[in-house]
Design brief:
The complex is a heterodimer of chains A (80) and B (413). By secondary structure, chain A is α+β, with helices and mostly antiparallel strands. Chain A has a domain of 52 residues. Chain A is built from two helices and five strands. The chains are: A alpha+beta (80), B alpha/beta (413).
């Protein structure tokens, strides 16, 4: 089992989509929301994912394909 | 001994012991160092600071490290120059340049890596690591070498080779990751969570970022123990910006300066300006972007301290300005031609932003204004290739006179 801490950023046209519900339904992933702010024009959710490594990878790939940005909770760590 | 009380979550306030951790277990918010300011107040004074070395360690009471463990590479106490020529051009009578490009590895990163590496030694790590495309890599490698630690530097494999030579010379292990920028971010975050390595800006981040506060302390001391009216600071992750503000507030709270009504202005490059755009849109929520700027040292699309930077702007009645990409080199030239200081592209962003702020009236002629120049121009020479034109001549007196005349005419046209 793998545990991953991530931040999802939703563009305006994705804010109304139940993506986190679908992530748990379509993949063997348990998600646990820790912090979030969702408004009409954008939203972000910080959450923990539990699941097998390959299942988390598949799920995150699907989320990215849906148009949602996925980042580590630490923000960008590659600095100039 | 340091005066650190604990680590504290910036979101929910949960407190943690002083360990190499960086994220709150409950809300995944970032952790920050909390100090026992009563204890600091009992030992610190203008006189105690003046007795310290002419480096950043003269402020060790306000840093989260045991000074006995600190590496003294001569970092800090860099010049604060009254920029009369540049100020004259911009209509600013009290403009100062904080020239931090003269640190041991030629950028302000030596300050943050100094605190991170000292803390890594305290925690008995034997490996110092970072993910970087330039300045940070050089600083981490130099500090690792001085400390006798193994050093790992990660970077995207498609990075120009020249960018990383300045790290390799110190004996660091260079790891070229075949992946894009986001994938390198992800890999390094996972490595920091699973290996006992001191990743300076991941698991050491609470300590790392505190080093930036010394840029506030030094400026206040060099101005005769007062806060500037205006600071202009380059914006990448937002950490430097928020920590300069934190440093000024600490000095006020400790009674080392009378008041702090500094207006904090951030300058970002047009091709990577998520914080400035959030400011312009009037929202505290910073939307991540994919960077596309010549100011590579500021290319952080998902800034960890973006939200807190907006808070700092609001608290200080400052702003954020965007430097157009085609004005960054102009900014570099302007500083070089007026003050004799050759800065990298991040400095070009600061000078371009400063000019905008002066023209708009956001900075008044008699405001004591400090522009932070954080890196050396020799690091980004490729950016200025197109604007440097030598006079070509044969070794004959007449040819030289003709070539000079043609060159001078060309310049005046």
């Amino acid at each position: 089992m793998t545990r991953r801490r991530i931040k999802l950023t939703f563009p305006q046209d994705m804010v109304k989509e139940p993506l986190i519900h679908l992530l748990g339904k379509n993949f063997e992933i348990v998600s646990n929301i820790r912090r979030a702010d969702v408004r009409e024009n954008m939203g972000w959710v910080v959450l923990e994912l539990d699941g097998e490594e390959h299942e988390i990878e598949r799920g995150l790939h699907w989320i990215v394909e849906s148009g949602v940005r996925v980042d580590p909770v630490s923000g960008d760590v590659v600095e100039g | 001994m340091s005066h650190v009380k604990c680590l504290r979550c910036r979101e929910c306030g949960t407190e943690y012991p002083v360990e190499p951790i960086y994220v709150c277990d409950f809300c995944f918010g970032p952790l920050e160092v909390a100090y026992d300011y009563d204890s600091i107040a009992r030992v610190i004074s203008h006189e105690s600071i003046a007795k310290g070395p002419l480096t950043m360690w003269r402020y060790h009471d306000l840093l989260p490290v045991d000074v006995e463990m600190a590496l003294d590479m001569g970092t800090g106490f860099t010049p604060l120059i009254h920029a009369k020529n540049l100020g004259g051009k911009l209509g600013l009578n009290k403009l100062y340049i904080k020239n931090d490009s003269v640190n041991p590895t030629f950028s302000f990163k030596d300050r943050v890596v100094a605190t991170a590496s000292a803390k890594a030694l305290e925690f008995e790590f034997d490996t110092l690591a970072c993910a970087s495309t330039g300045n940070l890599a050089g600083s981490v490698s130099a500090h690792g070498a001085k400390a006798g630690m193994d050093t790992m530097v990660f970077f995207p494999a498609d990075l120009e080779r020249g960018k990383i030579l300045g790290a390799g010379i110190y004996g660091a292990t260079l790891v070229a990751v075949e992946g894009n920028y986001d994938q390198v971010n992800r890999l390094c975050s996972e490595l920091a969570d699973n290996h006992r390595w001191a990743f300076v800006n991941i698991n050491m981040r609470p300590f790392y970022s505190e080093g930036s506060k010394t840029l506030a302390y030094e400026v206040a001391e060099q101005l005769g123990w007062r806060a500037p009216d205006v600071c202009v600071v380059p914006g990448a992750s937002g950490s430097l910006f928020t920590k300069i503000w934190k440093g000024l507030k600490e000095l006020t709270d400790l009674g080392l300066i009378e008041k702090n009504d500094t207006r904090m202005h951030m300058a970002q490059a047009e091709g990577c300006s998520p914080i400035a755009r959030a400011y312009e849109e009037g929202t505290p929520h910073v939307r991540p972007v994919t960077p596309n700027t010549i100011a590579k040292s500021l290319a952080i699309g998902n800034p960890a301290d973006g939200f807190y930077s907006i808070q700092t702007i609001q608290d200080s009645h400052g702003s954020a300005v965007i430097a157009p990409e085609d004005e960054i080199v102009e900014g570099i030239q302007l500083l070089a031609e007026t003050e004799g200081i050759f800065t990298e592209t991040a400095g070009g962003v600061v000078i371009s932003g400063l000019r905008k702020l002066a023209l708009s009236g956001a900075i008044k002629p008699d405001d004591v204004t400090v522009a932070y120049i954080t890196g050396n121009g020799l690091k980004t020479q490729e950016a200025i290739e197109g604007v440097i034109n030598p006079v070509f001549t044969s070794p004959s007196y007449n040819d030289f006179m003709e070539s000079m005349a043609a060159h001078t005419n060309g310049k005046s046209q």
